[in-house]
Design brief:
This protein has 53 residues and is mainly α. Helix content is 60%, strand content 0%. The chain contains one helix and no strands.
């Protein structure tokens, strides 16, 4: 199957690729979940180290 012209994504002439608003929400969502999760994991590991260290 050959690629049709509408299947290809054309880059902007300036080299900038437009950002889809869904991509920004996805990144924001991962940060909203990932930062507190990382904090909790680091805190837990540090307390485990104190308990068994």
């Amino acid at each position: 199957m050959q690629a049709q012209p509408h299947d290809a994504v054309a880059a902007e002439p300036s080299g900038d690729v437009p950002v889809n608003p869904a991509t920004g929400r996805l990144i924001f969502g991962w940060l909203l979940v990932g930062l507190p999760l990382a904090y909790g994991v680091i805190t837990t590991l540090s307390r485990v180290g104190q308990l068994f260290g």
